[in-house]
Specification:
The protein contains 4 helices and 11 strands.
Length: about 150
């Protein structure tokens, strides 16, 4: 099962507008240059399926997602699932629950995003991610082997 990276965004400071990038490097705490890398957390990088943005008529980056994935239902990924995104190996941690901030973007958006907001991942092995890179869902055996490389 694979998808494709269609968007990359970082927020350089709290409250800043997300910046669209062509490529980004992941480190042990998330996306380099992103405000959230200052905090050790299971919520390092937010993956979002592109079809949800289209369904809800949202612009890429508008709801503070980090990686937009086309061709893969990220909400169907279980916790612990490993993914190869470009050169980076990540592991799914928890779903992102929509917060009140969503209704500040558009009234009713918080409810519309329930069970669709995306999945957080944490970095296992850092590396570059670029627009157009594959997002590969790894089987459990492959994930263990890839983490040793």
């Amino acid at each position: 099962m694979t998808g494709t990276v269609r968007g990359l965004f970082v927020k350089p400071t709290k409250g800043a507008k997300p910046l669209s990038l062509e490529s980004v490097v992941t480190g042990e705490r998330g996306l380099e240059g992103d405000y959230h890398t200052r905090f050790a957390s299971k919520r390092q990088i937010l993956l979002m399926s592109s079809n949800i943005l289209e369904e809800l008529d949202l612009e890429p980056g508008e709801i503070f997602e980090n990686v937009i994935v086309e061709g893969l239902d990220v909400m169907a990924l279980p916790g612990g699932q490993r993914l190869r995104i470009g050169q980076s190996l990540v592991e799914v941690t928890v779903p992102c629950e929509p917060c009140d901030q969503m209704d500040g973007i558009r009234y009713g958006l918080k409810e519309a995003l329930r069970d669709k907001r995306g999945m957080f991942v944490k970095v296992v092995t850092g590396g570059a991610i670029r627009i157009g890179d594959p997002v590969e869902v790894l089987c459990r055996e492959s994930a263990a082997e890839n983490s040793l490389k």
